[in-house]
Amino acid sequence: MNREKQITFLVNGRELEAAVLPNETLLETLRGLGYFEVKSGCEKGDCGACAVLVDGEAVDSCLTLTWTVEAREITTVSGLGTVEDPHPLHTAFIERGAAQCGYCTPGLIIAAESMLRNDTREPNLDDMRLALSGNLCRCTGYTKVFDAVSEAARVTRQAGESK
Amino acid sequence: MSESTIAARDGANVEFRQVGKALPRIDAPGKSHGKTRYAGDYVMPNMLHVKVLRSPIASARLLRIDVSEARKLAGVACVLTHEDLPDRLAPTDIPGQTGRKRLDTDQQILVRERVRYHGEPIALVAAETMAIAEQALDLIDFDLEPIPGVYDPVDALEPGAPIVQGTDNVVAKYKIRKGDTEAGFAAADVVIEKTYRTQFIEHAFLEPEVGLAWVDENQVINIRVSTQVIEHFRFIADAVGVPHNKVRILGSLVGGGFGGKEDVTVEIYLALLAKATGRPVRLCYTREDSFFGHGKRHPFTLTYRSGFTRQGKITALRVDMTADAGAYVYLSPYVLLYAIVAAPGPYRVDNLHVDARAVATNNMFTSAFRGFGAAQACIAYEQQMDEAAETLGIDPLELRRRNFLRTGDLISTGVPIESAVWSDECMTQAWEALGQRTPDDGPVKIGRGVATYQQSYGRITWLHDTSEAWVGIEVDGTVVVRSGVTDIGAGQVSALAQIAAELLGVNLTDVTVYNSDSATTPLAGTTTATRALYMTGNAVRLAAEAVRERLLGRAAREFAVAPGEVDMADNRAFVIDHPEQSMALKDLIAVCASEGIHRSELVMFRAPFTEGIDSETGQGRVHPDYAYGAQAVEVAVDTETGEITVLKSVGAHDVGLAINPDAVAGQIEGGAAQGQGYALSEELCYEEGQLVSPSFSEYLIPTAMDVPEYQAIILESRSGVGPFGAKGIGEPALTPVAPAIANAVADAIGVRIFDLPITPEKVVNALRRVAT
């Protein structure tokens, strides 16, 4: 019954090993390891609060079994940058007032980052709607979230051009 | 009150350095970087995990419960049923600062004999792991005998209806008798009578209810919990049977509230289990638990009978309201009171007759939700205005203009409105912001609608509301604010920091706020009723002003000028007319510290106190003040599929003064989305009291796909009773949205749907009815 397996994976650039049951979700594993920025909102894949990047793609960690991320690279919102060296999405969410209660914010930033990594052109409103459609927010009405993501995309684009 | 009096009110024409600026909130970096710790992010060594056993049916008698097998399961530390509890009830009345209990609303903590709603808690399990706790739930053996329940408030009022609790199903009644409605209707050229219905809705905050409790070395039960109200420590202590000073509530930043975390949720269960086991206990609701775990918004049936002259002046209004209170009282009487106060909306109605009742059923209990009864009234009175406009052949905006209250007019409860009433300015600006009208496209019809409102801010004046705050300045010139206020996401704490920064001449980033701890921060009262900024903002302002006065006095001596000639900004004190004469704030503080000049202040701010309204006429003061504003929307309705798309949605609100315009705009945009869900997609479906939609895949709140880019227009009359003339925006932002959308849909398709939500199915059926 307790068929635990040693799983090795990267979280925010750090190699970790954990003894994991076959039915354990990545949400449970990450929170168990202290990655509390990964939020639990529904545990059914309805709300997106638990989103993380797995090899650069946003996934709901509540629907991802930890056994499936063996040797893969996981990034949480805190892994995108630090307070001293923030990611453009961090900065834009702060400056544009895109976080209210903030509970959905980590998932929204991850979903936005997944979009930007796959499409670094200027995302239009429909691109953003689609990219963020799996992330529920009850506070903001998404308007300032769209502002922040557009702003981060612009900054990212400019940084790319100046290289 | 004249215009000039308003202009001369508190805060007018003052230039600010920090207040009024769209600064990043102090809580924004933590939230964006994932550093903020919510109540569910705390763990303790040796911690137990809790699960709640809930009734699978809505109305039943508990014949037997046997937990012996569950207790035997390895890893189970404790199982509690009603048999294990002290002979106590849980108070659910509104928490006040006076310690006076206002209503007889106490209820069973766990089911004793009678189940009254689907999901009512029957037993608690604490175990070493969540999985063991879940297993233990399955091992609890119990027999429920279904008994007839009542699921519709109208049925519940019939003679012989099953009684939910006590001796009858009427939970509360209110009425208003103002002027002479008979004479008013006799003077009317046109009388319009319509009935509007609203539905059960869910707060759907993203952070489910959660808490962690432990008993410390002083026998204090500490509970770190997601709540809007740390003052619940008193009710929790009463329920558990310990003195009030033996329960401590530590709040955290709250992952959304909207009224759904205004009542006690997990706290009493945690306190009982921490006490019983002597170990830390954590209870985190699943999303499904959360659908069962807090009160919903009251469904209302509202019948409006309005008399108008041909010129569009209201001559009389008769309103009948019935609200579904669900299985327990909670805040239903207060919600009903708000609804009657709001009944005529922002209009002058001299002849007003209101009868309202809240009725017990075996549905989920209903309680606080942003808008608190006033939102339901708005859904009726604003649709009624459009119905009247059509009948009278008057433009809907113009009809409203002919009836808006003006400052000094008497509101529904017979007291004058003292602050600005900028309903017309807000409505006009919101409407104009819609811009060019989108043309119809074949079967897709475009419609526009507007709604205005009156919404109180601040609590009912006979609750004798107070708020305490402490402000101090450290020897290095940084500022500390201590206030028990909870921050539920609107930026309550950051606004306090902005006020303190303004008055003490520092930057926002120089202020740290400690909040939401019933043991160490002065009690500030609830974050409910759009009161946090009004009450706690005023308390912080008063405390900061007291410190400021002493610092300016000492600086004036240093500069050999009068205190009135000195100001503070950018971390310096300086002579206003000779800014070159200045000193660093930290040097001034060092002088104050060495001379023993008091660098901190604890202040209590008091709202106006009254003793209630006349029970026969409903006349008297109920709230400190009211806010006014408007929402204008444009929708597209596909007449073939019934699908409704909101194309444009603009909220324009007189907030008195915006402490932080970005935070205010955030409230307006978020309110626009919540109101849109209320109008179009959200409904908790109960069948014989059974909730059949307990998930986000069945209960549909607006997603990024459903929303336009909302527009917020902020007007500032500086006429409010909050700090610097601020009013409030938390609840007002939501209130007019749903009726504006309902009016837009009616404009688009030429037929009104009187029951929310306006689903595609209802649109198609309504169009079919008209066609045949």
Describe this structure in words.
The complex is a heterodimer of chains A (163) and B (772). By secondary structure, chain A is an alpha+beta fold. Chain A has 2 domains: 5-77, Beta-grasp domain (Ubiquitin-like (UB roll), Roll); 88-162, DNA polymerase, domain 1, CATH 1.10.150.120. Chain A has helices at residues 26-32, 88-95, 105-118, 125-131, 143-162; strands spanning 5-11, 14-20, 51-54, 57-60, 73-75. A 5-stranded mixed sheet of chain A has the order 2-1-5-3-4, with helices on one face. In chain A, a hairpin with a 2-residue loop joins strand 1 (5-11) and strand 2 (14-20). The longest helix of chain A has 20 residues, at 143-162. The termini of chain A are far apart. With 772 residues, chain B is an alpha+beta fold. Chain B has 3 domains: 39-147 and 209-284, Alpha-Beta Complex (Aldehyde Oxidoreductase, domain 3); 376-458 and 625-771, Aldehyde oxidase/xanthine dehydrogenase, molybdopterin binding domain (Aldehyde Oxidoreductase, domain 4, 2-Layer Sandwich), CATH 3.30.365; 466-606, 2-Layer Sandwich (Aldehyde Oxidoreductase, domain 4). Chain B is 27% helix and 25% strand. Chain B has 19 helices and 28 strands. A 7-stranded mixed sheet of chain B has the order 3-5-1-12-9-10-11, sandwiched between helices. Chain B has a 5-stranded mixed sheet with strand order 7-15-14-13-8. In chain B, helix 10 runs parallel beside helix 11 (374-392), helix 14 runs parallel beside helix 15 and helix 17 crosses helix 18. Chain B is globular, with a radius of gyration of 27 Å. The model of chain B is unreliable at 1-12 (pLDDT under 50). At the A-B interface, helix 2, helix 3, helix 4 and helix 5 of A face helix 2 and helix 17 of B.
